[in-house]
Each structure stands twice: as C-alpha cells, then as structure tokens.
C-alpha cells in the first residue's frame, strides 16, 4: 500500500485516542457506519496496540497507528496489525524502520526543511502538523510554490467548520482531526453521535 491510497476512502482521517480497550471495536464500528474507514489510532495510551489489533478485525476498517516517534513504535504498530503509520514529525531513523518492515508512513512536517528531509527519503504525502498552529492555510499555500509535488494531510486544530477551507487547497487531499471522536462521546459510549460526526465528515467536498 502507498499512503496516498488512503485519500481514496474519504476526506477526513480521524485521530483516535483509546483509553479503554472495550471502546475500540464499537468506536471503529461507529466510524465505519458513518462512512469513515481509515482510522488513525494514536500510540498515546497503554491499550493503543491492543486497540489497533481489535479494530483491525472490524469489517471495512483500515487501521493505522499514530504518534510513531521511534523505530520501536513502528515495529510494535506493525506487529499489532497497523497497515500504515503516522508520525507527528519526521526522522530518517523512523523512515528507515518503516521502509525495512514495509509499513507505509505518513510523516509529520511543519517547515520547508522537514519537507525536504522527508522528500529526500522518498516521501511526498506528508502530514502538516500542527496545522493551525504552524501557519494553517497561508503556510500550505506558501509551501505549494517550491513543493508543487507534495500532497498534505493537515492535522491539528481542524474542525468540521474549518476543514472545507483546507480541503479546497490543491495540495490538500485529506484532513486529520480528533473532532470525530470527542472524549465525552467515547466515555459515554455515544456511538450514534460518533456515526453522525463521521457522516458529516465523509460528506465534506474536496
Ligand atoms: O498524536 C499524534 O500522533 C499527533 O500527531 C497529534 C494529532 O494528530 C493531533 O493532536 C490531532 O489534532 P486535533 O485534531 O487538534 O486534536
């Protein structure tokens, strides 16, 4: 798989934090029911790897791991069944580890130098993180000049209301965000609300 294939499935990749393993499967089912199939599960919690394994068995779900910071994270995610990885930043070490194990990587960048480092290692579909704090739409427009061959997935501070402006940019094919899985909805098992948020996100135009 090439990470750019992920954009074929819809305009938004939800960034998911799982605190309780029991929430993993119903949450994935709720998102898939709303038309959102590509799921980024952050490695921020102790149950994240088990959650990736459980969610991978949900029909229709395409599950990847977020918050990859080191080579060991990539290996653990791959072993848990993640079919892609996302990182908040980029290091050559992480890139090499992902290549070695065959885990497609969507690495985070926030500056021109970071774009150049990722491109030097063959990566041209990049997460722009933290999108809003790192310059938002004006920054993406500025990066389009020298990096016309780069496609971005802006993530960080984006909402249903602001996503359309990002998705309207020629160098943006998909947005990431945690707004589809509000912590209170997950805590309360409000899966219907999450399906509704997923429906709204998957209906966004590109
Ligand atoms: O944990 C990771 O792997 C990250 O890189 C950070 C997340 O992508 C953003 O924190 C999501 O941003 P919000 O939509 O503003 O919540």
From TrEMBL:
<dbReference type="InterPro" id="IPR000887">
    <property type="entry name" value="Aldlse_KDPG_KHG"/>
</dbReference>
<keyword id="KW-0704">Schiff base</keyword>
<comment type="pathway">
    <text>Carbohydrate acid metabolism; 2-dehydro-3-deoxy-D-gluconate degradation; D-glyceraldehyde 3-phosphate and pyruvate from 2-dehydro-3-deoxy-D-gluconate: step 2/2.</text>
</comment>
<dbReference type="InterPro" id="IPR031338">
    <property type="entry name" value="KDPG/KHG_AS_2"/>
</dbReference>
<dbReference type="InterPro" id="IPR013785">
    <property type="entry name" value="Aldolase_TIM"/>
</dbReference>
<dbReference type="GO" id="GO:0008675">
    <property type="term" value="F:2-dehydro-3-deoxy-phosphogluconate aldolase activity"/>
</dbReference>
<protein>
    <recommendedName>
        <fullName>2-dehydro-3-deoxy-phosphogluconate aldolase</fullName>
        <ecNumber>4.1.2.14</ecNumber>
    </recommendedName>
</protein>
<dbReference type="Pfam" id="PF01081">
    <property type="entry name" value="Aldolase"/>
</dbReference>
<comment type="similarity">
    <text>Belongs to the KHG/KDPG aldolase family.</text>
</comment>
<comment type="subunit">
    <text>Homotrimer.</text>
</comment>
<keyword id="KW-0456">Lyase</keyword>
<keyword id="KW-0119">Carbohydrate metabolism</keyword>
<dbReference type="InterPro" id="IPR031337">
    <property type="entry name" value="KDPG/KHG_AS_1"/>
</dbReference>
């Amino acid at each position: 798989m090439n990470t750019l294939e992920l954009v074929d499935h819809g305009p938004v990749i939800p960034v998911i934090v799982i605190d309780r393993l029991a929430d993993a499967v119903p949450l994935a089912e709720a998102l898939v029911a709303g038309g959102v199939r590509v799921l980024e599960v952050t490695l921020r919690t102790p149950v994240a790897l088990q959650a990736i394994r459980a969610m991978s068995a949900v029909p229709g779900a395409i599950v990847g791991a977020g918050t990859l910071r080191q080579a060991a994270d990539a290996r653990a995610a791959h072993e848990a069944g993640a079919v892609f990885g996302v990182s908040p930043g980029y290091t050559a070490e992480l890139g090499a580890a992902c290549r070695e194990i065959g885990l497609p990587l969507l690495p985070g960048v926030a500056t021109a130098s970071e774009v150049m480092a990722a491109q030097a290692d063959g990566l041209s579909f990049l997460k722009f993180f933290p999108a809003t704090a790192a310059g938002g739409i004006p920054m993406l427009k500025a990066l389009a000049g020298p990096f016309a061959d780069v496609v971005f997935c802006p993530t960080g501070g984006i909402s249903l209301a602001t996503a359309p402006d990002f998705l309207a940019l020629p160098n943006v094919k998909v947005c990431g965000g945690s707004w589809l899985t509000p912590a209170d909805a997950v805590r309360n098992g409000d899966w219907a609300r999450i399906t509704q948020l997923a429906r709204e996100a998957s209906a966004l135009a590109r």
